[in-house]
Amino acid sequence: LPFPAPVPHLPFPPWGRYELRVIVWNTDEVILEDDDYFTGEKSSDIFVRGWLKGQQEDKQDTDVHYHSLTGEGNFNWRYIFPFDYLMAEEKIVISKKESMFSWDETEYKIPARLTLQVWDADHFSADDFLGTWRVQSVPQ
């Protein structure tokens, strides 16, 4: 039997729908923001917030690691960030209305950036921001 003819190389589509999957396992050396009322011991209730640039309204939070005394938090949290990616320009494509009175959506092309922030969860007041990390490119 002869071998079948080779399959021609098919080019990638100009843009495609992708998912960025991120796993948060641990945090370390997180600032201890809270003081215990009775013992004066420093602690933090740690959680991590993440989003892709241009999609801040779709931010995602891990669960909370309560009462960390060492600045270490343990998670097993998975983020999934869906996005449209334009390969030729290496940018994310986002469609948004410019204002609430706009009829049509406007397309924006922005660089891909993942932002991860560490927060201290509070019950009776606003959560405390502790730090941020922006991922602009991942080594291959």
Write up what this structure looks like:
This protein has strands at residues 15-27, 34-35, 42-52, 60-61, 65-68, 73-86, 91-96, 106-111, 114-120, 128-135. The protein is mostly beta strands. It has one domain (15-135): C2 domain (Immunoglobulin-like), CATH 2.60.40.150. Strands 2, 3, 4, 5, 9 and 10 form a 6-stranded antiparallel β-sheet that branches. It has a 4-stranded antiparallel β-sheet with strand order 1-6-7-8, with no helix packed on it. The protein is elongated.
Total count of strands = 10
CATH topology: Immunoglobulin-like
Question: According to CATH, what is the class?
Answer: Mainly Beta
Question: Looking at the structure, what is the overall shape?
Answer: elongated
CATH homologous superfamily grouping: C2 domain
Give the strand content. over 45%
Q: What's the average pLDDT?
A: 86
* Element-level helix/strand string: EEEEEEEEEE
Q: Specify the number of helices.
A: 0
Give the distance, in angstroms, between the N- and C-terminal Cα atoms.
41 Å
Alpha-beta classification: mainly beta
CATH architecture: Sandwich
Integer count of domains: 1
Main sheet attributes: strand count, strand direction, barrel closure: 6 strands, antiparallel
Uncertain spans? none
What share of residues is helical?
A: under 10%
Calculate Rg over CA atoms. 21 Å
Main location: membrane
InterPro entries: C2_dom, C2_domain_sf, C2F_Ferlin, Ferlin
GO molecular function: AP-2 adaptor complex binding; calcium ion binding
Membrane topology: Single-pass membrane protein
